[in-house]
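In response to the reviewer comment on reproducibility (Comment 2.3), we provide here a single inverse folding case reported in full, input and output, so that an independent group could reproduce the run without further information from us. The structure tokens appear first.
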């Protein structure tokens, strides 16, 4: 269905991986949809500054919405990745125990994984938990690819389109952009990451708050002869999930992240002390890192919900605004499941869904810089 330029059945606010996955899903159900992104390109925020790991959900709490959507994503993902030509490295992950408490944690993680239907194995020689399904991708190439395929499938994308106010009227919602443009839509999906609470407040919804939880990372080039071919996950303690080490698709090794709760949604800096903190923990698990100097660093801000997680559904004040907020730690993995879940909400709001189309094949998008350098070189200002 075609619409005048500034109207659409559905408008999505926010072009991170979550907004892009919803965009992809809806265009492949024949919905007339526009994606509005405040920045000059997609995936500069949390979606471009994470660990790039496609989690299986082995350690997620059984039954929670987050877990359901990670698992739902895993079913949809292979065909979509193939269609986008985005590489995935099926490395698997290992958690090596160092204490009696760790062995116990590993046993309970194995039980948790089996409750979620995720395949894991305990290695006889050292009791390590092997999570064969964990994999690594390029989160920026994935987000850009989703949007590219959605455009080919009939969607529209507006960059430099920062939503600054929303009017609720009889026929839907009118979005006012900071540059004076307006967009009218029957239903609006709020996938604005760190700013999802600001968007919800535009319709008087202050039911949730988003704060930034910073995660810092360091990128290394291993000396010749050394390599890492799987994700090294620490055995979690009651206090922390710890620092992980993973190989990137382009042959680097990344260690991180930290977890620092902030108030400033614009602070993407890496603290001077962060390297010592991370390297000590990372080298304890992967000794080849000891004494290495990083070739780069970056920080991501998780869009964390204050006392809430995976807030997905119609706003209590305005049914036509669907919040997709507080997608803190697993949005890359769960994004396609989130897209499918959001699509299921639309018929109840008068948006008809067409039959499910096969994912549109596109040439892979090759970002100009490695994904782990891209945001750093672009001051994120929303
Ligand atoms: C340190 C760290 C490590 C992580 N590791 C992993 C991992 O390994 N695996 C995994 O699955 N997940 C991981 N995550 C989580 C994952 O990155 C997030 O869950 C996901 O990126 C959230 O995506 P999003 O689209 O909701 O938000 P974002 O990526 O933050 O995107 C929101 C977008 O909304 C736009 N926006 C904001 N306000 C407006 C407005 N007013 N108008 C228009 N647009 C607006 C922003 O510019 C931005 O582009 C990690 C996150 C971090 C930070």
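Designed residues, in position order:
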């Amino acid at each position: 269905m075609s619409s005048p330029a500034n109207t659409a059945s559905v408008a999505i606010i926010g072009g991170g991986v979550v907004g892009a996955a919803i965009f992809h899903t809806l265009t492949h159900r024949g919905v007339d949809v526009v994606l509005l992104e405040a920045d000059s390109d997609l995936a500069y925020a949390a979606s471009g500054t994470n660990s790039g790991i496609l989690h299986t959900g082995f350690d997620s709490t059984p039954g929670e919405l987050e877990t359901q959507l990670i698992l739902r994503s895993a079913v949809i993902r292979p065909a979509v990745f193939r269609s986008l030509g985005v590489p995935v490295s099926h490395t698997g992950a290992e958690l090596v125990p160092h204490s009696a408490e760790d062995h116990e944690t590993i046993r309970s993680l194995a039980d948790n994984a089996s409750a979620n239907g995720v395949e894991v194995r305990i290695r006889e020689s050292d009791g390590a938990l092997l999570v064969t399904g964990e994999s690594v991708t390029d989160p920026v190439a994935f987000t850009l690819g989703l949007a590219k395929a959605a455009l080919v499938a009939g969607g529209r994308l507006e960059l430099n389109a920062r939503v600054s106010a929303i009017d609720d009227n009889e026929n839907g919602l009118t979005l006012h952009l900071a540059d004076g443009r307006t967009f009218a839509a029957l239903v609006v999906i709020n996938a604005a990451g760190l700013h999802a609470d600001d968007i919800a407040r535009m319709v008087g919804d202050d039911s949730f708050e988003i704060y930034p939880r910073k995660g810092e990372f360091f990128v290394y080039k291993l000396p010749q002869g050394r390599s890492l071919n799987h994700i090294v996950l620490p055995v979690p303690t009651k206090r922390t999930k710890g620092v992980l080490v993973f190989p990137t698709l382009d042959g680097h090794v990344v260690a991180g992240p930290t977890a620092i709760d902030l108030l400033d949604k614009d602070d993407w800096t890496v603290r001077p002390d962060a390297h010592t903190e991370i390297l000590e923990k990372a080298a304890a698990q992967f000794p080849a890192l000891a004494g290495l100097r990083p070739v780069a660093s970056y920080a991501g801000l998780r869009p964390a919900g204050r006392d809430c997680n995976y807030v997905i559904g119609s706003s209590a004040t305005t049914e036509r605004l669907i919040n997709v907020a507080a997608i803190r730690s697993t949005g890359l993995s769960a994004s396609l499941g989130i897209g499918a879940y959001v699509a299921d909400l639309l018929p109840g709001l008068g948006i008809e869904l067409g039959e499910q189309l096969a994912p549109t094949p596109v040439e892979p998008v090759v970002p100009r810089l490695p994904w782990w350098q891209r945001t750093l070189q672009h001051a994120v200002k929303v």
